[in-house]
Amino acid sequence: MSTISMKHVFVCIANRPPTAGSSCGARDSAGVIEKLQFALMEGGLMEKVRVNGCTCLGPCEDGVNLVVYPDAVFYAKVTPEDVPEIVEKHLAGGLPVERLVYTGH
Ligand code: FES
Question: Is 59 in contact with 76 (CB distance < 8 Å)?
């Protein structure tokens, strides 16, 4: 039996009603996904990392939020500009980007 070493990145794309407060969709989660896909393609990681949009992950005020499995690393306040560092250090190198890891404040 072979071991699969694929990672999955789930990026919150939820758009809550404006009256409900902030949401990841309103904070450019689409831009984060676009940048992720571009960086993975550039890095030759398309076969090793999958990116999916998902519904609300919980801490909406701290978005854009995303989680990397199977590592169970939760990132918050991610912008498209943060994506190259996440791809290089974590998805390619295996080390979480500590400054973006969600700590619950
Ligand atoms: S809207 Fe993204 S965590 Fe709730």
Answer: yes
